[in-house]
Amino acid sequence: MTPAQIQENHRFLDEAGDTTFYGKGKVPIIGQNGVSKCFMLGMVKFKAPLDEVRRQVVALQKSVSEDRYFASIPSIQKKEAEGGFFFHATDDTPEVRKIFYDYLDRLNCSFEVYVGRKIPGLYERKHNGKEAEFYADLLAHLLKNKLNKEGDFKLTLASRGKTTRNQNLELALSKAVERNRKGGMTSQIKFDVQNPRTEPLLTVPDYFCWAVQRVFERGETRYYDFMRERISVVVDLYDIPNYPNYGNYYSPSKPLTAANWLK
Fold this sequence. Notes:
Elements: H1 3-8, E1 10-17, E2 38-46, H2 50-65, H3 74-82, H4 94-106, E3 109-117, H5 120-127, H6 131-143, E4 153-158, H7 166-179, E5 189-194, H8 203-218, H9 222-227, E6 231-236, E7 249-250
Parallel strand pairs: 1-4, 3-6, 4-5
Antiparallel strand pairs: 1-2, 2-3, 6-7
Helix pairs in contact: 6-7
């Protein structure tokens, strides 16, 4: 493969929310006690040399960690103590988020994301009440049109405990092959699970996912609105009433709004 093909065939993925549906006694706890209302998987394609973007992100992280203005912030102190600061939207303060979102606004990349509403009845019917199958279903949708590239196709995922176990990833791949309209798989798919601390490029899908998550979980659009020209598609996968005419698909020309809040 040429360097251009390697760049073209490499994606970086992260998730937002969780795959929890039930508490003790199989009682639904969706939206309660820190449990999200939906789960989403997002994928970034960089349109600039990966090494160059990686250096830029590392330099920006270094500038934050060395800035006296941020020296007493607990989330930054904790990361420094554990091996070094890295951007993570959930932990970062508003000032730090603004720094990274300004950088992302200048970055040549695109982002796509599939959102899975947590609907217990659908979860039982479609996913057999199994979190692994719920996760695999979303990842399969992200993969299904990536299976016929020339050469290998590499997916670098942020390590997220049980959801990024190899068996989950392989289950998603098999589902994607089944759904691929072109039939089969001509690309060799390679999964690479990494930690955002050691792979700085994973901080980018993290921030994009967080922006979209705020819309669905809180009805807050300010971060999504700022980044939406980079967000090529958002698919509200299980919004069945809006299936006709791709009503569950969103783009820069048909953006998410506060009406997408899962109240």
